Amino acid sequence: MNIKGLAQAFFLALLCGAAAGTQAAAFPDRNVLMVVAGNPGGGLDLTGRALEQTMLETRLLPTGFVLKHMGGAGGNLAKTYVHQRSGDAYTLYVESNRVYVNKLVGTTTLDHHDLTPIARLITEYLVWVVRADSPFKSAKDILDKLKGDPGSVVFGVGTVPSNDQMNVLRPALAYGINPKQIKIVPFKSGGDLMIQMLGGHVPVISTGLSEAIEQVKAGRARVLVVSSPKPLEGDLARVPTWRSMGIGVEILHWRGLFAPPGVPAGTVKYWDQTLSKTVQTASWKKALDRHGWFNAYAGSAQFRKDLDLEIKIYAEILTQLGMARGAAKK
Description:
By secondary structure, the protein is α/β, with parallel strands linked by helices. Helix content is 42%, strand content 19%.
């Protein structure tokens, strides 16, 4: 090739590189589809809408979101839909730890390894709650009784398998109690669960703090322990955590974002940079306060590591209980 040809080839390469750079810098240049693995009004929907509102107020996202609710099959419908959109940078998916739990119990073949983890956004914490007049004064009282007879205390939870359930089984296991012998009764929802406890049908419930706080403030219920990594502030500052009791358990009832498999690395980087700024804004902090949520932000790399750790813990306990049907990926 002569000098003129080399110069033309070089110039063409520069143009292509510039075009590619312009295209990458333009993301996103249209609305992003946000697939919510739940129905309108639920926790996943509220998380998605809070993010949408914050992005709108702060203008950190130059375009917008289009929400698509797919609440069927315990989140599996949404997960399958997103998985089939492989490589689509304009799709996000809002989900909880069902993203891997459902595979463990055999209702799907997909887990977080079949998607692209983007960010953990928020969490609620779980609590043990009793009636105000309960003879149990502490979570240790209950654990000591279970140590003598694992079936002596009945726990109410929202559903199984769930974080509500794990907030009973994990501390019990760490305390040396056989989790198979613990009696756990699932109810339809957090509200129904509280009614059952206040009516004296179950002596203790494991539920989200937001489901219990109003009854606690009204003086009809007491919180014995919270699953947070450190003590909470305000009215619940004196409530012990599992860790403060010497039990190495903390449970985040989180909600996060995923993308389809095979999205460009630049897309993941964009969301890492944008979301890390979003969670620092006053608008987002107001949303946390409004919904009783706690900041649990983790970027894509840390989120992926945490998911891999969580699935190992769940797989071990569900296997002991005979509930594990699907194998966790290594």
